[in-house]
Amino acid sequence: MAPKSPDIPTFRKNLASSESWLSPFEGFGPNNFLVGEPEFRFSDYQAWIEERFAPRHFQKLKEKMDWPAQYAMGCFIQALGQNPGMEAELQNLAQQAHVYVGTGVGSLDTTYRASIRLYEAQQCWDAFWAGRAAELAEYLAELAEIENLGIEGKIEAGKLHSIREKEKRRAKLQEKWNAPEPPWSVTADVIWNIHNTPAAQISILGKIKGLSFAPVAACSTFGVALRLAMRAIQSGDAKAVVVGATDPPPHPLLVGSFYSARVLSASGNVSVPLTRLQGTHVAGGAVLWIVGDFEYMTAKGFKPLGMEPLAVGVSSDAEHIITPSLEGPKAAILGALKDAGAQPENLASWDLHATATPGDYSEIATFRSIFPDPVVIAARKGTFGHGMSAGGGWELTAQYLGYEDGKLFPTPLKADELNANIRQVHEQFVFDVGCEAPAGLAGKLSMGIGGINACVISRPLP
Hints:
Elements: H1 8-15, E1 23-24, E2 34-35, H2 46-52, H3 57-64, H4 67-82, H5 86-92, E3 97-103, H6 108-129, H7 133-147, H8 155-177, H9 189-192, H10 197-206, E4 212-213, H11 221-235, E5 240-247, H12 252-260, E6 282-283, E7 285-292, H13 294-299, E8 307-316, H14 327-340, E9 347-351, H15 359-368, E10 376-378, H16 381-384, E11 386-387, H17 391-404, E12 407-408, H18 420-423, E13 435-436, E14 441-448, E15 452-460
Parallel strand pairs: 3-4, 3-5, 6-11, 9-10, 9-14
Antiparallel strand pairs: 1-2, 5-7, 8-15, 12-13, 14-15
Helix pairs in contact: 4-10, 7-8
């Protein structure tokens, strides 16, 4: 679920072109920002949901769930459709099927709208009761009496009766005082959209009974989730794990934050990594994989896609909130190589984190301190932008889809636009024409805010 790509067939088709998937941001009115707006309609999944749940379930999800949860649910339903029999298998696995789906910034729009509603309600509340301290005390005493109503009789029936009775009495209290709604009654939407909501909703949709939680590691979220999934499978705790990352669509709060942090391009043009290093572009959407025990899942008739993840190395810079260190990413890379049982000369291709900022040069320098010159390098954030948590998963998915077809998909980078300082360090890149997938292992590095690093080493399947 990516910009201009609501599903895998469209994602694969768009990857064949070197064109950027970015579009103008409308959140501020006229401005110079380009962003990655996900193409998505939750209604596309209505029939699937209504076949399995009560008639009102889809409508409740549509009304209560913010974009990150809706994106993740859509991706999960797509994944089940791409793998016939997977839905039943995940249910049959019971505690050995897990869900690890994280998010970068969570449900920004829900928090934003709830904050505005709270602010407006507080203003009305304060204006109404200003200078009426005695009356407010009387009002609060009457409200406390209502809230003190307990549950009588059988708990389930008594609970519903208590809720209805409180609502009726509160309505009468408001009418008596002609008072505005208290600010604490504004919304419950925030708790329906906390960071683990996408993972929880997937567990509900799929009736998955094993561990479900939200790993949060900024731009390294997908790699961290994949590492945890691999460890769970290797230890025997799980046979299959739904892993993923989901981000809201570009929001003024996030676009403004990236710009104020001096890492966002605001020229009105696509900022391609490894070129002028002007800044990145915010993007939203989701990515979701189902990974499993190879022997178990292939025996069940499921087919792997393109590559096999061998290892995920992780580390923390422990140095700076935004600027990557040299040693932190290097530690993640070396850890991944060690766990994969690989040597630097075994690597044939590499996907950078590359955000079109000065950090691109440092990343290339770190890479060349480990790997030889012939490795072919790709940088794809000029294609679909910077998904806070999903971006690394999009890049890995592009890598895996490419290797399935024996190629590396093109990027927007033109050979004559490569930054001269970077060219002095390394020259083998995936440009706007793509190339054949070289024989050997493939790597992918993600570097998250806070210095959280994840490096994935994969090998092509025969």
